[in-house]
Design goal:
The strands form two sheets. This protein has a two-stranded antiparallel sheet with strand order 1-2. 40% of the residues are buried. By secondary structure, the protein is mainly alpha-helical. The two termini are 31 Å apart. It folds into two domains: 123 residues, Peroxidase, domain 1 (Orthogonal Bundle); 143 residues, Peroxidase, domain 2.
Amino acid sequence: MSFPKVAALAALLCMMLRGSFAQLSPTFYDQSCPNLTAVVRDTVSQALQGDVRAGAKLVRFHFHDCFVNGCDGSVLLENQDGVESELDAPGNQGIQGFDIVDSIKTAVEASCPNTVSCADILAISARESVVLTGGSGWVVQLGRRDSQNANRTGAENNLPSPFETLDQLRAKFNAAGLDSTDLVTLSGAHTFGRSRCVFFSGRLNNFNGTGSPDSTLDPTFRDALVIACPTGDGNNRIALDVATPDAFDNAYYTDLVTNRGLLQSDQELFSTEGAETIEIVNRFAGNQSDFFAQFGQSMINMGNIQPLVAPAGEIRTNCRRVNPTTTAAGTAVM
């Protein structure tokens, strides 16, 4: 068989492993790492005691991981030989929480060496972050493996941007196999965490070159943001949900209904005339239990994007770097 045919067959097999043949299970680690959930929960809880933003950071990692080649831990890889990191893509610049992931990985390795992937750690950490800050849990599907490469181009093109319209957001979610309900629901993760002023300051005075503020931004809220984001200081961090910034609840949606969505991409969900997302926002604003239930389902949907499973990939011992390989002479190389 010629080399091109071999390469094509290998690519097809890889797609099959990431596609419908890939099976995840909530009981995947029941025998190999029975204390996994407790270990992750304890470490996330400790992180939240010293950093109220820890939960939001972990959920963001999982989200940004899944939208590029599926949930395979690639977002965590730093630049190294043979790997062009996704972290240099615009959507990942400024992403935080590596120290928390490192702590969780260290605790998991101490309990179950060489067993649990970084991708699965992100998935479990996201759920525990939500539960520990007031939300409801869901059944996390497990059994992912870690990618041995990153996808910088995918990170540049696939990650939703805070400056995008509803049509642009829908297109990116649809490309990942997620619908408008998933879009509105997963955006609700912005009910906790912070955003730098640079990501919304364009709405305050000269929105899209109009010379005026974004008309979908509540004027009183806009005045407060102008004070909080002085000109030239785009690194100030403002709560995405000013009412309950550190709690996982449905206040994000009541903010949208009152035109107090911080990011353009958030307010677009409610302020785009005739959009089907308006009804979903209203539903979640009026029923927190409904939001919690759908959030769990949408997280499962997102976690099932092109799962990478054995024999592909690896279990990284350091989430930031691919495992060293061993040459015939017994020398470890990267």
